[in-house]
Amino acid sequence: DLKVPLGGMTHIYLAESDTQFRELQPGRAPTWAEGVAYPSLGLVLLRSPGIRTGTSKPLEQVLRHELVHILLGRAFLPTQPPSWLQEGLAQVWADEVGPETTHTLSQGLATGSLMSLSGLSRGFPADPVRARLAYAQSADFIGWLREEYGTEAVGELIRQLSNGAEIEGAIHSATGDFI
Q1: Euclidean distance between CA atoms 67 and 12, whole angstroms
Q2: How far is residue 69 CA from its own chain's centroid?
Q3: For the chain, how far is it from start to end, CA to CA, in angstroms?
Q4: Disulfide engineering: 91 pairs with which of 33, 36, 96, 155, CB 3.0-4.6 Å?
């Protein structure tokens, strides 16, 4: 669906303990992460179901999310994709968008704290509440784009952005519209 090359092999490891999950990291992973992807290394690290919280997503859903990070990250190498594109695609393609996303967006709208797409392109906020809103907005935009213009438009957006196009031009090329 994403119209990106698969790239090389991807190694997937399932950590049996928190210690093992931390020790397998080639970098520093967030303590809350259920999985982490390293596109340039072709590496996905997952926490096994036995060490995840009761509110965790199904392991298959976490794996789909991380595999999107691998594919998209490889498409942008040697640079990195914008955070909003990376997280929006991962959430939408892993079927993680639901009522909680809508609730987060409605809170952002009610408080006037929604961010512009160009603002999201500069990176996600460090504040957890604003970061959650950035994730929700990213997923909402990608979901809307796919629903309104189809998966072909999403693939074209990825191609344009990975080739260095500015966001406005990439969206126009993908949709034919100025958004």
Answers
A1: 10
A2: 6
A3: 23
A4: 96
